Design the sequence.
C-alpha cells in the first residue's frame, strides 16, 4: 500500500503563490493517475488537477491557467504549483493515487486571505 504525505500548505495572501508537495512511498510510475483534490468547508471534495503515468494532465476549470501539476520521478513526488490564488481556493488539499487501491494523503490546509 502506497503512503502519501502532503506538505506545503499554509496561509497566503490573495494573488500569492504556493507549492504543494505529495511524497509517495514508492515510484509514482506504478500509479496510473495521481491527483490533487480539495475540500472546502461545506462542500464536496473536488478534483483540482491530475497527472497520468504518461504525463498527461487535466485541471478543473476553476484553476485552469493558474495551477500546474508536475512531478519529479527521482523524488517520487508530485507537486501542485498554485499561482494567482483566490480566497475561494481556500480548502484542505489532498493528494490521491487512484490505485488499486485508491489512497489518500492526510491533507494539507491552504488558506487564502488578506
Sequence:
Amino acid at each position: 500500500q502506497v503512503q502519501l504525505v502532503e506538505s506545503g500548505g499554509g496561509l497566503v495572501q490573495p494573488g500569492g503563490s504556493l507549492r504543494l508537495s505529495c511524497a509517495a512511498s514508492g515510484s509514482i510510475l506504478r500509479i496510473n493517475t495521481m491527483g490533487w483534490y480539495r475540500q472546502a468547508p461545506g462542500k464536496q471534495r473536488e478534483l483540482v488537477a491530475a497527472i497520468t503515468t504518461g504525463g498527461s494532465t487535466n485541471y478543473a476549470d476553476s484553476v485552469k491557467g493558474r495551477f500546474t501539476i508536475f512531478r519529479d520521478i527521482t523524488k517520487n513526488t508530485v507537486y501542485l504549483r498554485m499561482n494567482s490564488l483566490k480566497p475561494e481556493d481556500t480548502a484542505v488539499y489532498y493528494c490521491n493515487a487512484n490505485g488499486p487501491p485508491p489512497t489518500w494523503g492526510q491533507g494539507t490546509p491552504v488558506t487564502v486571505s488578506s
